[in-house]
UniProtKB/TrEMBL annotation, chain A:
Domain ABC transmembrane type-1: 107-320
SUPFAM superfamilies assigned to the protein according to its UniProt record, in alphabetical order: MetI-like (SSF161098)
GO cellular component: plasma membrane
Pfam families on file: BPD_transp_1
Major subcellular site: membrane
Cited PANTHER family: BLR7065 PROTEIN, INTEGRAL MEMBRANE SUGAR TRANSPORT PROTEIN
Residues annotated as signal peptide: none
Protein's recorded name: Sugar ABC transporter permease
InterPro entries per record: MetI-like, MetI-like_sf
CDD domains: TM_PBP2 (cd06261)
UniProt record, GO biological process: transmembrane transport
UniProtKB/TrEMBL annotation, chain B:
InterPro entries, per database record: BP-dep_ABC_trans_perm, MetI-like, MetI-like_sf
Span of domain ABC transmembrane type-1: 72-265
Origin organism lineage: Bacteria, Bacillati, Actinomycetota, Actinomycetes, Micrococcales
UniProt KW keywords: Cell membrane, Membrane, Transmembrane, Transmembrane helix, Transport
Membrane topology annotation: Multi-pass membrane protein
Name of the molecule in the record: Sugar ABC transporter permease
Family indicated by similarity: Belongs to the binding-protein-dependent transport system permease family.
Matching SUPFAM superfamilies: MetI-like
Subcellular location: Cell membrane
Principal location class: membrane
UniProtKB/TrEMBL annotation, chain C:
SUPFAM superfamilies from the UniProt entry: Periplasmic binding protein-like II
Source species: Cellulomonas uda
Any matching Pfam family: SBP_bac_1
PANTHER family in the record: MALTOSE-BINDING PERIPLASMIC PROTEIN, MALTOSE_MALTODEXTRIN-BINDING PERIPLASMIC PROTEIN
Record protein name field: ABC transporter substrate-binding protein
Family recorded in the similarity comment: Belongs to the bacterial solute-binding protein 1 family.
Signal peptide region: 1-24
GO MF: maltose binding
Length: 335, 280, 430
């Protein structure tokens, strides 16, 4: 791709990559030197957009257009199998959705799943990160490989694996764990809200903890070793070192990890769809949107749910950035 | 390296075993299920009573062959193409972000972030309507394009982070030593950038491979239906019998490439994932 | 125009036409696409046979739909709403036929064809393929649930369902006294609607009083003696644990598993259980003596003196209204549903024929000794509510009649009536 850079696009290092020999190789290191040449800045901007433009356009086209369309559709009473009855009804769809306990129930379940999975994953992920951080070289590879397996596995596959393991007729869990109080061969995990949510969350945690623990591992490696050693020399206990030295230095990493996982968990769909399809009060927002627009073909109502879901996500982001001051610059790799 | 006391050795062994069991048990359990006879699925045992390859025969040569093989082909083809396109576009974009100074850079990065948190379910219905009116419904391209919205953002961050760490001065050094610009780029920069690009490709592939919502919503025949969506189409010996065996076998088949990639490239994947999200 | 020029024109026309003709010859006869529900390969086989019989007039290709009926409908409805011309023939689950027929997604069936495909067809299948007094789909196979019972358990309870029709009360008492488990489908899925509907119909009521009305005028018939009787049965089975711990997630397959265990007693289920149980015996998973202990009879009654109305299922063939080859598709559909094809499909795939003639086929009688009971059951079977809003009604029922233990004759019929009415009026989400 580098050959596509027009010659003379700037006198800095990147023109080295063009076939044109550069008359003055020595100037390359000053690329961020804010030259007064506005020509140069313009060229650089143009080149930047030429390179980054296609990716930008694709991203915008695949998301912005559909969400605008969804917003437009959400203002109509529109059922796909009755196209002639399509009619503008203003914000009525939103009123219906927001005044319906079904929406709030799904919202509560989704929020519960998000909070619980993120908290558990944070703890588990931190433990795993510590293990990987401290592990001797030989074990590190083994551990990393093991925890990357859940990361790489298809969510649907993981949902089926967990479903079959807990299912009352085919599962082994009831037989293996019948010594646990409350677990016996007659426990029907997918018949009650609490137990079904527990399995759904367990599978979600299993699948995504590796991701969070890797982010935390990166954070751990940023903690200056000298600080920790100094604290150890000063006689700080392990817990004190963790609290005073390690965690404060990892704050940015933790916040970013939490935000990413929270947004991801809020969109949970695959596991619920496979395991309960929303039975026993396990309907989540994505499933509600799917069931309305794709199952019932109620495009208007479904689009309203989609738009609201979108605003929820924006809301979480906003809260995280404003209230918790998550440093997204570091998330963007600008840190 | 520190020498380990016996107690520490035992401790580490225990920890390793615990982590491995936790990470691998569900995978092993579905592998075990995939070798069970259809009539023995409900015995409640972990391992099959009689080991059988019936389920694999069903999906590779038997009644589910016409469902599974095209789906496997679609999954591989669509994911590879989506990965390739995403990596090419992201490489260009990340190069610009890492090395050029221009207005709009933040906009691009913020957009990437925004797109990556986008609720997929919100855009599936409008996409369905658009696709069917322009003829992209149930085609490879009709999945590749939305897959780009999943793979591009993370590819851009990961690569931008990688590219920032490349000492571009090496290129000049090589040229000073008499290499042509192309040689300099190929000898000095490509070897440094290649691992990043490769890692990004792996991560992007995992994401495309994982998709379910687009797969079930934007396809309707074996022309484009990927494996995760096809799992819902399996059937037992008759309409009402559970296709547990076939699903498990298919699940194992699509998990194998993932496990192999993880085994071969765990180090790269880890560094890619961590650099993309939090700059190391 | 001189002669010469006309000549030239003729030559030119031939020159243009020739490659076109060659092209058409190369691509062969039109290919019809038949969207089938997943089965054990029977429909693919029939498609191949009909292609052969068509002798070059058409080729019949199959494309598979998802496993559960609701997703099948989802996919077909979306594509038909987009006026998809690639759908020529569809295997349709009967309750979803009105939704596709109402907006004109199904091509009309000409009178002469209708005449032909409705002779010697069981009543349940005819009802299921009819919308607003017109035949809109071609009956292919018809399914019904029977009462399956363990002879030992029935005997101990002093019942002989094969001779004397039994009531739900009797089998519930029998299961309770002997500490056995009843096989019923309590999962929150289509099978629950099947159960509720069969109970309401057997008690002399209807889930919908006026199924052909527009959405906001539909009247539910659940707040009736029939609705309360149905709720009483389901609630009692749920509360007293007569359906076992697995009841709230029990679909047809899980129900069969329970029935095959030692705790099995009575079960309502489709005939696939017979072939599946025999297959398990052949695998050595189940003991051969189990098969000898299994009896079958008509669906249990709610009221001892009123005939039951067993569930009706199966597949009818719809012709896509936007197909480019409606005539050929009609022809192919008639080939698919010949009694011979139906009989063989039953014998190999276990799906009972809609044609009464197919039941006399020796292969059928050998594979399914209960063929006569199935035919009888189909004659008195009641379809699920035939409305374009079936999906809302069915999902609404599942939402309010699940889990079975929470079903209460005093509250459930009213609650589900209110809920479904609100959903149909667009005032509530599902």
């Amino acid at each position: 791709m580098t050959t596509s850079i027009p010659p003379g696009a700037g006198a800095d290092a990147r023109s080295r990559t063009t076939p044109e020999p550069d008359p003055d190789p020595g100037t390359g290191t000053t690329r961020r030197g804010r030259p007064r040449l506005s020509d140069r800045a313009r060229d650089e901007a143009r080149l930047g957009w030429w390179l980054a433009g296609p990716a930008f356009v694709v991203m915008v086209a695949v998301t912005i257009y559909p969400i605008l369309q969804a917003f437009y559709d959400s203002l109509f009473s529109y059922r796909l199998t009755a196209p002639d009855e399509r009619a503008f009804n203003g914000g009525e769809n939103y009123v219906v959705v927001l005044s319906d306990p079904v929406w709030w129930q799904a919202f509560a379940v989704t929020a519960l799943i998000t909070v619980v999975t993120v908290l558990v994953e944070l703890v588990l992920g931190f433990l795993l990160a510590l293990v990987m951080h401290r592990a001797i070289q030989r074990l590190r590879g083994v551990l990393r490989t093991a925890i990357l397996v859940p990361y790489g596995i298809i969510t649907v596959v993981s949902a089926f694996a967990w479903f079959y393991a807990f299912d009352i007729s085919s599962g082994f869990v009831n037989h293996w764990f019948d010594w646990v109080p409350g677990v016996d061969p007659d426990l029907n995990w997918f018949a009650h809200q609490g137990t079904s949510l527990a399995v759904i969350m367990a599978s979600e945690i299993w699948k995504t903890t590796p991701f969070i623990s890797l982010l935390l591992l990166a954070g751990l490696s940023q903690v200056p070793g000298e600080l920790e050693e100094a604290a150890e020399v000063d006689g700080a206990t392990w817990a004190q070192r963790l609290q005073r030295v390690v965690l404060p230095n990892m704050k940015a990493a933790i916040m970013v990890a939490v935000l990413f996982r929270a947004l991801d968990a809020f969109r949970i769909f695959d596991n619920v769809f496979i395991m309960t399809n929303g039975a026993n009060g396990t309907t989540v927002l994505s499933l509600l949107a799917y069931r309305t627009s794709i199952g019932r073909l109620e495009i208007g109502l479904g689009s309203a749910i989609s738009v609201l879901l979108f605003f929820c996500v924006i809301g979480i982001c906003f809260i995280a950035i404003k209230l918790f001051k998550v440093d997204l610059a570091s998330a963007r790799g600008e840190g | 390296m520190r020498t380990l006391t016996t107690r520490m050795k035992v401790g580490w062994a225990v920890i390793t075993v615990v982590v491995m069991v936790w990470a691998l048990l569900p995978v092993v359990s579905i592998i075990a299920t995939s070798f069970k006879l259809p009539s023995q699925l409900n015995l409640g045992t972990f391992w099959p009573k009689t080991w059988t390859t019936t389920n694999y025969e069903q999906i590779f040569v038997g009644s589910a062959k016409d469902l599974f093989l095209p789906a496997l082909r679609n999954s591989i083809g669509i994911s590879l193409i989506a990965t390739f396109v995403a990596v090419v576009l992201a490489t260009l974009a990340a190069y610009a972000i890492a090395r050029l100074d221009f207005r709009g850079k933040r906009l691009i990065l913020t957009t990437a972030l925004g797109v990556s948190i986008f609720p997929v379910i919100s855009i599936v219905t409008p996409l369905f309507n658009l696709w069917r009116s322009i003829g992209l419904y149930d085609t490879w391209l009709g999945l590749i394009i939305p897959y780009l919205s999943l793979t591009l953002p993370i590819s851009i961050w990961t690569l931008a982070a990688f590219f920032r760490q490349i000492p571009w001065e090496l290129e000049q050094a090589a040229q000073v030593d008499g290499a042509t610009p192309w040689q300099a780029f190929r000898k000095a920069i490509v070897p440094l950038a290649a691992p990043g690009v490769f890692t990004t490709a792996l991560i992007a592939f995992f994401i495309a491979w994982n998709d379910f919502v687009y797969g079930i919503s934007l396809t309707s025949t074996s022309a484009a239906r990927p494996v995760p969506a096809a799992l819902a189409f399996f059937t037992g010996a008759s309409q009402f019998e559970e296709p547990t065996g076939a699903i498990s076998a298919a699940a194992v088949v699509v998990t194998v490439p993932v496990v192999i990639l993880v085994l071969l490239f765990q180090r790269q994947i880890v560094s890619g994932l961590t650099q993309g999200a939090v700059k190391g | 125009m001189g002669r010469r020029t006309r000549h030239l024109a003729a030559v030119a026309a031939v020159a243009v036409a020739l490659p076109l003709a060659a092209c058409a010859a190369e691509s062969g006869p039109p290919t019809l696409t038949w969207y089938i529900n997943p089965d054990n390969g029977g429909q693919v086989e029939i498609a191949a046979r009909c292609t052969q019989e068509a002798d070059g007039r058409y080729r019949l290709a199959t494309e598979v739909l998802p496993r559960d009926a609701a997703s099948q409908r989802e996919q077909l409805a979306r594509r038909l709403a987009a006026k998809d011309s690639s759908i020529d023939i569809m295997s349709l689950d009967p309750p979803f036929i009105p939704e596709l027929a109402e907006p004109g997604f199904l091509a009309p069936i000409p009178k002469d064809v209708a005449q032909k495909v409705t002779t010697d067809v069981v009543q349940g299948a005819l009802d299921g393929a009819t919308w607003k007094d017109e035949l809109v789909a071609i009956p292919f196979w018809a399914n019904t649930q029977l009462l399956w019972y363990r002879k030992s358990v029935a005997e101990a309870a002093g019942l002989d369902p094969a001779k004397e029709p039994v009531t739900w009360q009797q089998i519930m008492d029998a299961a309770k006294e002997q500490g056995k488990v009843l096989g019923v489908q309590g999962a929150k899925a289509e099978s629950l609607t099947v159960w509720v509907n069969a109970l309401v119909e057997s008690a002399g009521g209807h889930v919908l009083e006026n199924p052909e009305a527009p959405a906001d005028e539909l009247r539910l018939g659940l707040e009736s003696d029939a609705g309360r009787a149905a709720a009483e049965i389901i609630g009692t089975i749920g509360r007293e644990g007569l359906g076992g711990a697995g009841l709230p997630t029990a679909d047809e397959n899980a129900t069969m598993t329970v029935f095959q265990r030692d705790s099995g007693s009575f079960m309502v289920n489709w005939p696939f259980v017979w072939s599946a149980t025999n297959a398990a015996v052949e695998d050595g998973t189940l003991d051969a003596s189990l098969v000898d202990d299994i009896g079958w009879a008509l669906y249990p009654r709610v009221d001892a003196d009123t005939e039951s109305r067993p569930p009706y299922g199966g597949i009818s063939l719809g012709i896509g209204a936007f197909s480019e080859h409606v005539d050929l598709a009609l022809e192919a559909a008639q080939c698919i549903v010949t009694p011979e094809n139906q009989a063989e499909y039953f014998a190999t795939n276990g799906n009972p024929p809609a044609s009464t003639k197919a039941y006399d086929d020796p292969a059928v009688r050998k594979a399914f000794p209960m063929a006569d009971v199935i035919r009888e059951s189909l004659e008195q079977a009641a379809p699920r509510p035939q409305t374009p809003y079936y999906n809302e009604v069915s999902t609404g029922l599942q939402e309010t009649w699940h889990p079975p233990a929470d079903v209460d004759p005093d509250t459930t019929p009213r609650r589900s009536t209110d809920f479904i009415t609100a959903v149909l009026r667009g005032e509530a989400l599902l």
